[in-house]
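Sequence, please.
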């Protein structure tokens, strides 16, 4: 069978390989890949800057945003042939730490977690793969290809879950204005979930043309190109660019008692002049919380699935700006200016 593999640490090593079929395993589902979403993390792995092969091997099968169809399911697993499933990305660490032991592998304390397609475990970018039933999540087959948006949705479901928990430190919490920086898939899903909570949405992005401004407007939100009005402030900021100048700016944009959630991963080794005195003074005097959020646990997969189920399907489908067939797989890794979500299609989802 075909699989997309990389040599982690080596730039431009990505290729379509022939791999043996998955071996027998009476405890795991056998899944046929339908689609694979490509995200910034995949591009970083392809660039050689991130990613780890499984122990004892050189190459890693790439891919963590999955959508597959069950071919074989163990008796009593709760799954049946034909079910559409998405594979959870992270696996708990072997110790396990207290967080992983509680099923919160997204909060792993010792860093020994593994991640399919990213860290020490083969990913879902193969025509067929095995998936443990405990790490498989059913998606409504009526969603078709849109089911591939579940994994990125879980990242925002977690971010919103933690924002809600932090917000409830005060009994009077009633956020109104939300600022999302970045109108890529993560930013747009953050905005969608904010809208589903009836908040007033503002999204900042560089794009002046293409589908992003309209997608934000169709959510009932306000799209800001390149810069925000000088006095603009928001009760909640969800930062989805990882760009230093944007991060430095949003730190000043939260209202009193506000929350800033950072979801974008930046590269190390870049610095900006930063006034820590003012930062600390504002944090303390305005009861601000700035926190980071990564990955998602099973609860967030359920929350993400709910958000997708409630969303307008035609709006969601406009987020998928390119569907690339496996025969032209390399095009999926070439970013284009108007891309939002690029999906590699293994088979027809309908
Ligand atoms: C994935 C997360 C993962 C993170 C860090 C993201 O692209 O969606 O599941 O934890 O990368 O590896």
């Amino acid at each position: 069978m075909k699989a997309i593999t990389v040599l982690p640490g080596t730039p431009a090593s990505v290729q379509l390989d022939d791999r043996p079929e998955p071996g027998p395993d009476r405890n795991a589902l056998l899944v046929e890949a339908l689609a694979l979403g490509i995200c910034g993390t995949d591009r970083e792995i392809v660039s050689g800057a991130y990613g780890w092969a499984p122990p004892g091997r050189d190459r890693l099968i790439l891919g963590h945003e999955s959508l597959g169809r069950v071919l074989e399911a163990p008796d009593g697993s709760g799954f049946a042939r034909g079910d559409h499933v998405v594979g959870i990305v992270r696996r708990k660490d072997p110790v396990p730490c207290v967080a992983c032991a509680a099923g919160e592998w997204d909060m792993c304390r010792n860093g020994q977690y593994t991640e399919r397609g990213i860290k020490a475990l083969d990913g879902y970018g193969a025509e067929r793969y095995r998936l443990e039933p405990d790490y498989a999540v059913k998606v409504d087959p009526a969603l078709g290809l849109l089911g591939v948006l579940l994994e990125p949705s879980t990242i925002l479901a977690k971010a919103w879950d933690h924002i809600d928990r932090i917000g409830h430190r005060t009994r009077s919490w009633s956020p109104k204005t939300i600022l999302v920086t970045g109108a890529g898939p993560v930013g747009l899903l953050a905005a969608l979930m904010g809208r589903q909570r009836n908040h007033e949405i503002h999204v900042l992005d560089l794009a002046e043309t293409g589908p992003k401004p309209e997608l934000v407007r169709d959510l009932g939100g306000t799209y800001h190109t390149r810069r925000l009005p000088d006095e603009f402030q928001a009760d909640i900021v969800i930062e989805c660019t990882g760009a230093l100048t944007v991060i430095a700016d949003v730190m000043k944009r939260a209202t009193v008692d506000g929350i800033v959630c950072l979801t974008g991963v930046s590269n190390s080794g870049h610095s900006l002049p930063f006034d820590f005195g003012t930062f600390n003074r504002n944090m303390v005097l305005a009861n601000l919380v700035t926190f980071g959020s990564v990955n998602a646990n099973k609860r967030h997969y359920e929350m993400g699935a709910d958000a997708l189920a409630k969303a307008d399907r035609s709006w969601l489908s406009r987020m998928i700006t390119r569907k690339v067939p496996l025969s032209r797989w390399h095009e999926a890794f070439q970013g284009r200016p108007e891309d939002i979500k690029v999906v590699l299609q293994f088979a027809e989802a309908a």
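The radius of gyration is 20 Å.
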